[in-house]
């Protein structure tokens, strides 16, 4: 991922927060037949390996797991994003030398991928993934709420993936390359936007 120095983010807590908040990621493998991409809910386990492990699962009918990857896989987690209009820049009024851009946060996690079909490992995986997302609800659903034979049948339709992390790239593009007046204009513009997602980014613009 191309990341100019101004947009690099090496804060571990920040990148983990982006991974957890993303909820859905794009799982990418390069193959002899070309790149393959599947949107998946993935989670990060920092207790395994030197840099942690990414877990998730694909439908068994998905050909991505059957085609040998060329090199490492990549999990792409996107954070908040927003269009930035030049109208918000003080520089527009001063020189007019401005163009539109986009602010966003992206985390690319790289590593070799292992696919598995073991029922016990799959049950543990889907239980952890379910508990992660159901834990925020007032009345959380659990895998154990479903009949065991039904769960086992569902497990036969998926394939687990385990990706030990070798490298993480983080890009936090939040107008850091603009001057203080331009950044203030961007923050004010986002804060007054009709889009909830824009308003959520406003506090992330450095002052």
From TrEMBL:
Protein name, entry field: Transcriptional regulator
Residue ranges of the region described as Disordered: 174-207
Pfam families attached to this UniProt entry: FMN_bind_2 (PF04299)
Ranges of compositional bias, category Low complexity: 177-191
Classification via InterPro entries: Split_barrel_FMN-bd, TR_PAI2-type
Superkingdom per UniProt: Bacteria
């Amino acid at each position: 991922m191309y990341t100019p120095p101004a947009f690099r983010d090496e804060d571990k807590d920040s990148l983990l927060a982006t991974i957890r908040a993303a909820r859905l990621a794009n799982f990418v493998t390069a193959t002899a037949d070309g790149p393959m991409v599947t949107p998946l809910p993935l989670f990060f386990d920092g207790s395994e390996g030197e840099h942690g492990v990414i877990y998730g699962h694909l439908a068994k009918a998905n050909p991505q797991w059957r085609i040998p990857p060329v090199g490492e896989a990549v999990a792409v987690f996107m954070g908040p994003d927003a269009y930035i209009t030049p109208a918000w820049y003080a520089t527009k009024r001063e020189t007019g030398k401005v163009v539109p851009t986009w602010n966003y946060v992206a985390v690319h996690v790289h590593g070799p991928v292992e696919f598995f079909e073991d029922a016990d490992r799959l049950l543990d995986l889907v239980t952890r993934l379910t508990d992660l997302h159901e834990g925020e609800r007032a009345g959380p659903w659990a895998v154990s709420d479903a009949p065991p034979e039904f769960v086992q049948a569902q497990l036969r339709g998926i394939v687990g993936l385990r990706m030990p992390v070798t490298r993480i790239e983080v890009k936090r593009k939040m107008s850091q390359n603009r001057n203080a007046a331009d950044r203030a204009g961007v923050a004010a513009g986002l804060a007054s936007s009709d889009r909830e997602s824009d308003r959520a980014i406003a506090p992330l613009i450095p002052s």
